[in-house]
Structures
1.
Amino acid sequence: MKSYDNVLEDLIEEHLRRADKGNAVSQHAIGLVYKSFAENANHVDERSSSYNKARGYFELAARQNLHSALFVLGELYDQGLGVMKDSSKALYYYEKAAKMNNAPALYKLGTMYFNGFGVPKDLEKAKELITKAAELGHEKAKLFLDNYFTE
C-alpha cells in the first residue's frame, strides 16, 4: 500500500501532466500547491518563486474562465502576494469571478462596497452582493448579513 506522501506525489504529477495539456482545473490545483508552498516558505526567494509559479498557473486557468482561479488572482493582487498590491487588478478579477456566481468573490466585492475599499462606498450594492453570496452558501456572507444588515 502506498504511503500518504507517495499518493500525494502521484496526484501532483497527474495534475501537472493535465495542466500541461491545458486542463484548467489541474492548472488551478497546481497553482494552489505552489501558493501553499509560498505561504509556508522560509526564505523570501523561495516564497517569491512559488508565488510566481502559482500566479502563472492561475492565469492559465483564468484564461479559460475558471472562476475559482479568477478569484484567487484577485486575492493575490488584493493582498500583494507575490505581486505588487493592485486594487484595480484585484477588482477586475473579483468582478469576473462574481459574474460567474463565485460566492467568495461576491462576498469580497460586497465587503469592498460596504467599506469603500477600491470602489465608491455603496451599501445597497454591498447588500446585494453579500446576499447573493449567502444564498450560494457562503458562511461569512450569512454572518455579515446578520451583523450589518438585519432589519
2.
Amino acid sequence: MASEIGRIESAQRVSRRTALRRAVGASALALAFMAGCAPTSSSTQAPAKGRAKPGADTEGSIRVMVWSGLVEQIVKENAVKSFNQKYPKVKVELEIGTNADLYPKLVATRSNPQFDGAMMNDLFSAVGNQDDMWQKFDPELVPNAASIPADLNPPGGFGYALMLTQFGLAYNPEKVPNPPQSWADLYKPEYKGRIAMSDGYFASYQLAALLEGDKTMDVEKGIQVWQKYKDNIGTWSNAEGQKAELVSRGEMWLAPKFGAWTEQEKVQGKNELFTIPKEGAIQWLGALQVIKGVSPQNAELAQLFFNEWYSKEFQQALVKQGFYIPARADVDIPAELKGTSPAIMTADEAKQKLLRYDVEAVAKKQREYTALIQRTLKA
C-alpha cells in the first residue's frame, strides 16, 4: 500500500497556485494515508429532492476514484458489472491510484469538479471535512449501507465506511518463534535494527503513548517514547508490500502493519504472520465519499453506484479475497476463514475490539508529527 501525506494549508478557497502546490506536495511526499489541509466549515450540499430517481433509460457518465490493486479488481468484477446491468446507459469511468495521487486532483478541480465520488481512508476523509470537499449521502439512494454501525463511519457525518482492518504486528515466524504479546516487546534489545517502521502513519506512536497510560494516544508523546528505542528501528518504509518483503526475507523481523494486507501477502507466499498484542490494535477504515459541487444527477448516480459496493456480494468479496473486515454488520465471516487469523473479524467485533482515536485531530497535526519524527527518530 502506497504511503500518502500532504501539506497543511490555511485557505477557505483554493487558488490555482495553492491547488498546484498541494498536488506537488502530496506527490513529492507520498507517505502513508494522509493529507493535511486547514480547517474550513464542512457544509452540506443536500441531495436533490423532487427529482425522478434514475432508471434504466437514464443516460450519463460518472467518474469515481478507486484504489489500485485488489480493490480495483473487486470493484470491476462486482460493482461495475451489477451497476451496468441496472443502468446500461450510464458510463462508469474509474480513476485508479492512491489517496496521495487522487486527493490533490480533487483539490485542484474543486471549482469545477471532474470526479463524482472517491474512495478515501479515514484520515483523508477527515482532511476532506476540513477542506469542505464532501456532500452527505442520501440514505434512500444507498439502502445497502443501512446495516453499517454508525460509529464505524468516518468522522463528521460525511461518507460511509466500506471496509476496515486493524493496525497490528507482522513478524517473521522463523526469526521470532514466539509471537509478541505486547507492543512493549518492540523495545526488547534483541530486536535492535530489526524493526521496520513508518513515518507516514502514526499508529505505532499512538500505541506507545497508550503503553504509558495515555488513553488519548497522543502521537507526540509516543514519538518521544520511541526516542529511547530508536536503535531498534532498522529501516523506514511506508509501503506495506516493501515491509512484507523485508520481514519475509528476514532482513527485518517485525513490522507494525495492517492485518488485511498481511494476510493478502501470506497468500502470495510471504513468510510473515499477523498478531494483535494484548493492548489492542488501532482501527483503520476505507470509506466512500460523494464530491461536493457535482451535478445533482451525477451525485445521485454516484450514490447508486456506491450502493452496489455495499451489497452483500461485494462485502463478502472484500472478506474472501482481501481479508478485510466488512462494514456491514449483517455480513458473516465464511466458515473457511473463521479462526485463521486475528485479522479476520466481523463489523460488530471490530466495533467492540478495535481502538479508535480522534482522526480529525491527528489529520490537523500530521505535518508536525512527520517533522518531529524526522528530527528525533530519523536524524
